[in-house]
TrEMBL record:
InterPro entries: Bact_OuterMem_StrucFunc, OmpA-like, OmpA-like_sf. One of its GO terms (cellular component) is membrane. The keyword Lipid metabolism does not apply. This is OmpA-like domain-containing protein.
Length: 208
């Protein structure tokens, strides 16, 4: 009777142990499935990021080829897909009146830019920038750098349209003294910040 009693008490212990092991295996399987899923998601994200970088690289190379001549002459710069033109080439100090050299340069860009925009179905954003020096008190045309940068962007936009760029492909933006490319610590750097940039941008989706 004693031996029979001992066997009957051992059975529930093993049953509980089996249930515990089954639960642990289940948890392990869930963790394993989560880890595999997370790794797959990371792999997809990495592949998408790599593809995006390749697209941007191809985009920059295509733009460089389209603008090879003015880039080689040093009349424009290309950085991160933005075409930069020194404000000194386009305008006199504190002026939004386009100089002859600047008008000629803009005219030479129409062909390659228009072909590039048409091929990619994009628009051209023309952005005006200034240095950090305030507008001189004797300047009766502009209240501040925002207004000066806006007028310069509009002047370049109109010059592009006058030279043959469809008005539907170009628009203007103003940044004033914001987003400098160099510290406004000396005249050379300020001259770099006085600039106009042109950047191809995607069309906004949707109607209206």
């Amino acid at each position: 009777m004693s031996e029979l009693h001992d066997n009957s008490t051992e059975a529930p212990v093993w049953a509980i142990f089996g249930d515990l092991m089954a639960a642990l295996v289940g948890v392990f399987v869930l963790i394993l499935v989560w880890v595999i899923g997370y790794q797959l998601e990371l792999a997809r994200d990495l592949a998408a990021e790599t593809e995006q970088r390749q697209v941007e690289q191809q985009r920059r190379e295509q733009l460089e080829r389209a603008l090879a001549e003015p880039l080689a002459s040093g009349r424009i710069s290309l950085r991160d897909g933005r075409i930069g033109i020194s404000g000194n080439v386009l305008f006199a100090l504190n002026s939004a009146q386009l100089q002859a050299e600047g008008r000629e340069l803009l005219g030479s860009l129409i062909g390659p830019l228009q072909d590039y925009l048409a091929e990619r179905d994009e628009l051209l954003m023309v952005s005006g920038f200034t240095d950090d020096l305030p507008i001189r008190e004797d300047n009766l045309h502009f209240d501040d750098n925002w207004e000066l940068s806006a007028q310069r962007a509009l002047t370049v936009t109109r010059a592009l349209i006058d030279a043959g760029m469809p008005a539907s492909l170009v628009f203007a933006a103003a940044f004033g003294e914001q987003q400098p490319v160099a510290p406004n610590s000396d005249e050379d750097n300020r001259a770099r910040n006085r600039r106009v940039e042109m950047a191809p941008v995607p069309r906004q989706g949707g109607d209206g």
